[in-house]
# Entry
Amino acid sequence: MQDSREERQLHPVMVEGNHDFGTVSDRIGDLTLKKRTPFHWFIGFGIAFLVAQLLMVTIIYLVTKGIGIWGTNQPVGWAFPIINFVWWIGIGHAGTLISAILLLLNQKWRTSINRFAEAMTLFAVACAGLYPVFHTGRPWLAYWLFPYPNTMGIWPQFRSPLMWDVFAVSTYATVSLLFWYVGLIPDLATLRDRAKNKFFKKIYAIFSWGWRGSARHWHRYELAYLILAGISTPLVLSVHSVVSLDFSVSQIPGWHATFFPPYFVAGAIYAGFAMVLLLAIPLRHLYGMKDFVTKTHLILMGKVMLATGLIVGYSYVMEAFFGWYSGSQYEWFMIKNRIWEGPYWAFYWMLMFCNVISPQFLWFKRFRESEFWLFIISIIVSIGMWLERFVIIVTSIQRDFLPSSWAMYSPTIWDWSMFIGTLGFFLCLFFLFIRFLPIISIFEVRTLLPQANVHGRPQDFDENVLEIEYTYDKTDPPNR
Amino acid sequence: MSENIYGIMAEFDTPTQLVDAAVKVRDAGYTKTDGFSPFPIHDIDEALGIKRSVLPYLILTGGITGLLSALGLVYFVHVVDYPIIVGGRGHFSLPAFIPPMFELTILFAAFTAVFGMLFLNGLPSPYHPVFNIPRFALASREKFFLLIESRDPLYDYEKVRTFMESLSPQEVFDVPE
# Structure
C-alpha cells in the first residue's frame, strides 16, 4: 500500500484505465459524434440560456436608457463594469497558463485539461470584453478605440493605459483563439474520419484544413505550437499587468502602487484555477472523463491554487504595509477606510476569509484530495476574487482626496442582472463547446499513453552520439 | 497499373515499427517519403531525414514586422500627424509606447506562426491521394503509415513494393493518383 502510494507520487497517473489509441479517440470523440445528447445537457444549457436572456434584456435597456440605469456615478465612476471586466479577464488567465506556461515547463498533466481550459479563456474574455464596450455608454462608437485614419483628423492616445488595454485584450483574445484552434486541427481531422453524419463530416473536413497527420506536417505543427506557447507566456503576463496599469498609472490612493502587476497576475491565475476546477469536477463526472481528468490533476490544480493564494495573501499584507510606510496621509487614510474605519470594512474581511483563510485548507491532504472540498473552496475563491476587485475599486475612489466629493456606492438591479447575465452567457457558450467539439485534446492524450513511446531504436540511429561517446571513453577514462 | 500511382504505402501497428521502417527507408536512399501518425512522433523527423523547418525564422520576421509597424504607427500618430503634449512628456515618449509595441509584436508573430505553418504544410488541401485508401482513415485514430512517392528518383514499382513488404507491415497499398 505504502509502496504504491510512493510510486503514485513519483510517477503520477495521467491516464487511468486500460486505454489504447483507439479507445482514447472513441471515448472523447463519441461525446461529440454520438447522436443522442444527454438529458442533463439540455437541463444545463436550458438554464444557462435563460440566464443569458438577462444579459440581453439588460443590454437592450442599457442601450435605450444609457448607463444611468447602473449605480455607477461620481465619484465611483468605475464600479461594476470594471469589477466584472477584471474578474472575467482574470479567470481567462488560467487557460493560457495551462496551455502555454505548463507546456514550456513540460508539465504533462496540462495535456488533458488544456482544451476546455482554453475554451474557458475564450468565453471569459468574451464576457469581459462586453463590459468596457458598454461602459463607454455609446457602444456603437467603440471602433473609435482603434487607430484608423478618420475625417475627424484625430487619433487615439497611445500614452494612455486604457489604450494599452485595448491592444492587450484584443491581442490576447486573438492569440488565445489561434492557439485553441491550432490545437483543434488534428482532433477535427479525427472527427472528420469518424463522423457518420455527412453534414458534420463536411464541416469537420473544412475546419481541419485537410489535415492528414503527415510527419512533415507534424514537424512544423509542433514548432508552431511550441513557439505560440513561448509567445503566449509573456502575453498572458502582460495582459493582467496592463489591466493593473489602468489603476496604478492613476494617482488615486490605493491604486497608485508599483506592485500591482505581479499582484494582479497572481490573483488572475488564482481565480482562473478556481474556475477550471469548478468546470472540471462536474465535467469528469457527467461525461465519464475520470480516466483522463484524474485525481492527480485535481490535486495539482489545488496546489497551484494554494501557491497563488499565498502570493495573493502576501500582496494584501504588503498593500496595507505600503499604505502605512508611504507616510502619505491619503494612502494611510485609504487603508484605514478600507479595513476598519470605512463603510465597506465588512467586504474587506469577507475577502480575507475567502482568499486568505479558505485556501489554507489545501495544505491538508484530506481537503486537497476531496473533490467536494476542492469544489467548495473554488466557489469561495471565485467569490473572494470578485470581492477583491470590488474592494480595490470601490474603497479607493469612494473617499479620495477631497471630503466634499465623498459618496457611497451601491449597485442597482441592472448591475446585478448584467453580471448574472454574463455568467449565463459564459455557461451557454461552454455547453455548446461541450456538445460540438472534443473537450479534451485527443491527439495529445494519445502521446501520454505508454504505447506512444518509441522503443529500441536501431543502432545506426544514434551513430554520431555513439562515436562521440566512444572517443570520450578512449581519451578521457572515467574516474574510479 | 504502375502508371498512375501516387506512391506505395505500408501500414504499421505501433510508432516503434513505423520509426524502424522509416530508418530503413531512409537508408535505402528514398527521399520522397512521408510518415503518417495520429500524434506527433519526435523520432520520425530524424528517421525520415526531415530537415528543420524555416518556420521559426518566419515567425521572428513576423514579430519584428509587428514591432516596427507599432513603432511606426505611434511615431506617425504622436510625432508627425497629431503632436500633442500630454502629462509633460515629449512627443516621442518611448516608455509609454512599449505596451502597444509589445502587443503588436506578439500578434504578428502569432499570425505568422499559425498561417505560416499551414502555408508551409500546403494546407488547406481538400484532396490528397492518400485519402483514396479507405484504411487511411485510421491514420487519425490508431494506425501508422509510411509512404514512398512515385516521384522518388529511385522509384521502381516492383522494387519498392518488394522493399515495403520486407519491412513486415500489416499491409501494403498502392495509392492511386
